[in-house]
Write a structure and sequence with these properties.
416 residues, six-stranded mixed sheet, 2 domains, single chain, alpha+beta, Alpha-Beta Plaits
Length: 416
């Protein structure tokens, strides 16, 4: 029972970190937040940039002539600033998104401050209550707009603060004897602001929680906790597109895994896959990743690794092993290694070469690694002995070409 409670507490703690600290967000969530925020911000800027000057007609019909002229000029400046800022800025990161949000908030805040100072001298009987209310509610609209964006709790709160400050400024600059000050009492403004602010912040934070859950289901395999093939392909695409100096992939296929399913059932096979995935993750560096490529196939991504880094991972797998089958025999695997850009200038070619080398490792009996040019390295998972030195020199079979390995894949797949 205590273990279950500890597990629930750990899950709640993890979910709370997602809602409180954007630095804990996975890269896919960060990119999704940027993408969603950018198009919503652009839409908002266009709507405000178009509707704000369109209100000039209402100002001319309802405000005194001098104030209508002043507000018309202010509205045109707001539209120009928003639309020009939209064309100049193209946010690509959360920091740039925040800069764009800050720009919009600053423009709207400046407009509200100017409108309060311009209209504060107008008596309540000079304009209708509806028009006065429309200017008074701008801070509330700014706070409500927080609900449009997927923000963490601190981010949403910080974004809503300017609306609260503008309301306080309005209370101090427009007394109740003026049209702006008389339209709502102090208590009404504070109550409405608190209510709308609370709902907007809640809606914003819920979006982050929802996006995180959707991305978790898309990016992480439910059975093993590894990255899904979709997430792995995206990661490989980014790595090769951005021309990272070196990316090593290790294509891992469990040896004779069908025997586990056939002899002990699929539940035992699932437990075996969980054990292997956990073992692989514990052998990697912080920046490395394990992808469940399909069935009993895994892809290990080692960004920036060199031959020494690959050797370190192989040594750890040799010492730690991959776990035990239900019959207490050690789990072994066949591994093919490919390096970008040496073994391919795009991720598909890289995976294809690693896949062919993995099947060559199976052809040679399994429980071994095949690297470039047929270089072979025995995992020695069965004996759990440390591996010394560099990868072994290729034998006669290792000198075969990639085309020859490809022709033999179909036969090997049927045997394994």
């Amino acid at each position: 029972m205590s273990h279950q409670w500890l597990s629930k507490i750990a899950v709640l703690g993890s979910q709370a970190r997602v809602l409180l600290d954007p630095r804990t967000h996975p890269e896919t969530l960060q990119r999704s937040r940027v993408r969603e925020a950018v198009w919503r911000l652009n839409l908002l800027a266009v709507l405000i940039g178009v509707l704000t000057p369109a209100w000039i007609v209402v100002d001319i019909a309802t405000l005194p002539e001098r104030e209508a002229l002043q507000m018309g000029m202010a509205r045109m400046l707001v539209a120009i600033a928003l639309l020009s800022g939209l064309m100049v800025r193209n946010p690509r990161s959360l920091k740039e998104v925040w800069a764009s949000v800050g720009m919009v908030v600053a423009i709207l805040s400046a407009f509200h401050l100017y409108s309060v100072l311009t209209l504060s001298s107008i008596a309540p009987d000079e304009i209708s209550r509806t028009i006065a209310l429309s200017y008074t509610l701008l801070p509330l609209v700014m706070v409500a707009l927080v609900a449009l964006f997927p923000l963490t709790l601190p981010e949403a709160t910080m974004t809503a603060i300017p609306g609260f400050l503008l309301t306080l400024f309005t209370l101090g600059s427009a007394p109740e004897t003026t049209a702006i000050g008389a339209v709502l009492s102090v208590e009404e403004r504070i109550w409405m602001l608190s209510l709308i602010g609370g709902i907007a912040i809640f809606a914003s934070v819920v979006q982050v929680r929802y996006m995180h859950e959707i991305i978790r289901q898309l990016d992480y395999d439910e059975l093993t906790g590894c990255l899904t093939r979709r997430a792995g392909e995206m990661m490989l695409e980014r790595s090769t597109r951005h021309r990272i100096a070196s990316v090593v992939i290790m294509f891992v296929d469990l040896d004779k895994f069908s025997e586990v399913n056939n002899s002990f059932g699929h539940k035992a096979g699932d437990e075996t896959l969980r054990a292997v995935s956990e073992s692989l993750r514990t052998t990697l560096r912080a920046g490395d990743s394990v992808v469940r490529w399909g069935g009993e196939e895994f892809l290990i991504l080692l960004p920036g690794a060199d031959s020494h880094g690959v050797q370190v991972v192989l040594d750890r797998i040799s010492r730690q092993g991959l776990g035990l089958r239900p019959d207490r025999l050690p789990i072994t695997a066949s591994v093919g290694v490919a390096v970008y850009p040496t073994d391919g200038d795009n991720w598909r070619e890289l995976v294809r070469n690693a896949d062919m080398r993995m099947y060559e490792a199976k052809r040679r009996g399994g429980n071994r690694v095949i690297a470039g040019s047929g270089t072979e390295h025995s995992l020695d998972v069965d004996e759990k002995t440390p591996v010394e030195g560099e990868l072994a020199a290729p034998d006669d079979e290792g000198s075969r070409t990639t085309e020859e390995l490809a022709d033999e894949q179909v036969l090997i797949r049927e045997d394994c």
